[in-house]
Design goal:
The chain contains 21 helices and eleven strands. With 418 residues, it is an alpha+beta fold. Helix 13 crosses helix 15, helix 14 (272-278) runs antiparallel to helix 15 and helix 16 (306-316) packs across helix 18 (338-358). It has helices spanning 12-23, 33-39, 55-61, 109-114, 138-144, 153-159, 162-173, 180-189, 198-209, 214-224, 226-230, 239-251, 257-265, 272-278, 283-297, 306-316, 318-335, 338-358, 371-376, 383-398, 405-415; strands spanning 28-31, 48-51, 65-69, 74-78, 84-89, 91-96, 101-105, 124-126, 131-133, 146-147, 177-178. A hairpin with a 4-residue loop joins strand 3 and strand 4. It has four domains: 12-143, Beta Polymerase, domain 2, CATH 3.30.460; 145-230, Hydrophobic Seed Protein, CATH 1.10.110; 266-358, no CATH class; 364-413, no CATH class. The strands form three sheets. It has a seven-stranded mixed beta sheet with strand order 3-4-5-2-1-8-9. A two-stranded antiparallel ribbon has the order 6-7. Strands 10-11 form a two-stranded parallel ribbon. The chain starts with 11 loop residues before the first helix and ends with a helix. The structure holds adenosine-5'-triphosphate (ATP) and magnesium ion. Magnesium ion (MG) binds at residues 32-33, 46. Adenosine-5'-triphosphate binds at residues 32-33, 48, 116-117, 121-122, 160, 162-163.
């Protein structure tokens, strides 16, 4: 086991905030994610400070500062580098209902560390004295790559079920093994995750999906029973399909979050909507998943079949077409059909992309006539409008040269009801 490093690379602005508090006699430490990640060799901007000073004092000492989470004792302080740092008064848990912990202020760092979720998140570092305080032995767990609750796991999860999801996320992100007692309590707690608000679950799922290798966390969701409770709509996905979903998601780069989300939820089919509404996803997120999920089900046109490529684009929509192709490529990679499958798909995709680049009309908006033209022909607005325009699009898809105003007006005139 290695000893702790001599010192961590704390931003000057963070040290300056700590110095100001310490100068007034308020003990102040860096704790949480930034300390953990610095010990793992990573670096990040959002250092959090824990202090004995009360929030009123912090607000008074720093201008500008903002009561960002004042009910939890958190004040946002603008550092001299322009970043906002969170300074939180030492707290202890007094009462819990599994959804939110009720906390009160504490005077000692040890009390504050004891209420933190996992040992790796409970390591304190003094940014001025360069001293560690690690009573939960988080450093040892970090080196052993072990996720372990602070305190008695069942109690800690029952206090706040969100910790179950946080644990799965950290274990996935840092490739940690979950210590057996923590794992057992986590699996026991999984059935009660339904109590968490949709918003919090949504946030956690998005955090897992934003990681560099989301499959690890997602697979833990499934193995622990959390996925079955939170997203029962995916219950019919068998192990083989699940492997393909995970590999597809890993194959997408981190910034393609909406594609990863679509890959995860697409198998829910018609249940995508109730599932995403329950978990409070936005209308835009719901739309993306529905459109891309459908595009995954729709087989691609044969290579070289330009008319079929236009039809495919009409269903998927030109704006989502490139993303839909990305999903097909990732699934292809995940299925591992080899060079033959890959080159077939490449041919299909290049046919679609060719049509897209040429800008062939594939939407109603691209037609040379619109509803106002039909009105001038004497047609009253109603369902007939859409039907006639769709019929125009049918012929234009077959032959884009027909997309001329006069021709389409003539075509429409012939289709007017008597
Ligand atoms: P990241 O920001 O990378 O997701 P983090 O560890 O910084 O990870 P935050 O949610 O920013 O996570 O919380 C900061 C710290 O607050 C954690 O490291 C942990 O010590 C503590 N903490 C956060 N949420 C909880 C919770 N639900 N129960 C107990 N402690 C928590
Ligand atoms: Mg954080």
């Amino acid at each position: 086991m290695k000893g702790l490093p001599e010192k961590l690379d704390v931003p000057g602005a963070v040290a300056a905030i700590a110095r100001r508090l310490e100068d007034r006699g308020h003990e102040t430490w860096a704790v949480g994610g930034a300390v953990r990640d610095a010990l793992l060799g990573g670096s990040r901007g959002d250092w959090d400070l824990a202090t004995a000073a009360r929030p009123e004092t912090v607000l008074e000492l720093f201008r500008p500062s903002y009561p960002v989470g004042i009910q939890f004792g958190t004040v946002g302080v603008r550092g001299e580098d322009g970043n906002l740092y969170e300074v939180t008064t030492f707290r202890r848990d007094i009462e819990t209902d599994g959804r939110h912990a009720v906390v009160e202020y504490a005077d000692r760092l040890d009390e504050d560390l004891a209420r933190r979720d996992f040992t790796i998140n409970a390591i304190a570092y003094h940014p001025l004295h360069h001293e560690f305080h690690d009573p939960m032995a988080g450093w040892e767990d970090l080196q052993r790559r072990l996720l372990r609750c602070v305190g008695e796991p069942a109690t800690r999860f029952a206090e706040d079920y969100l910790r179950v999801l946080r644990g799965l996320r950290f274990a996935g992100r840092y490739e940690l093994e979950i210590e057996p007692a923590t794992w057992d309590a986590l699996v026991d707690a999984a059935p009660r995750l339904a109590r968490l608000s949709g918003e919090r679950v949504r946030e956690e799922i998005l955090k897992v999906l934003s990681g560099s290798v989301p499959s690890r966390g997602l697979d833990l969701y499934r193995r622990s029973g959390a996925l079955a409770v939170l997203v029962p709509e995916l219950a019919s996905v068998d192990d083989t399909d699940w492997r393909v979903i995970l590999a597809s998601i890993d194959g997408l780069t981190e910034r393609r979050l909406r594609l990863r989300l679509a890959t995860l939820f697409a198998p829910a089919g018609p249940e995508i909507e109730p599932l995403m509404r329950r978990l409070r996803f936005s209308n835009a997120e719901l739309r993306d998943v529905q459109v891309l999920g459908r595009a995954l089900d729709l087989s691609l046109p044969k290579s070289g079949d330009i008319v079929a490529a236009r039809r495919w684009l009409r269903h998927v929509g030109p704006d989502d077409a490139r993303d839909a192709l990305r999903l097909h490529f990732c699934r292809e990679g995940a299925l591992g059909t080899g060079a033959e499958g890959r080159s077939a798909l490449a041919g299909q995709a290049s046919t679609v992309l060719g049509v897209l680049r040429r800008g062939d009309p594939v939407t109603l908006a691209a037609l040379a006539i619109d509803g106002s033209d039909l009105k001038q022909l004497g047609l009253k607005p109603g369902p007939e409008f859409g039907r006639i325009l769709e019929a125009c699009l049918d012929v234009v898809i077959e032959d884009p040269k027909l997309n001329e105003r006069e021709r389409l007006l003539e075509f429409a005139r012939r289709r007017l009801p008597d």
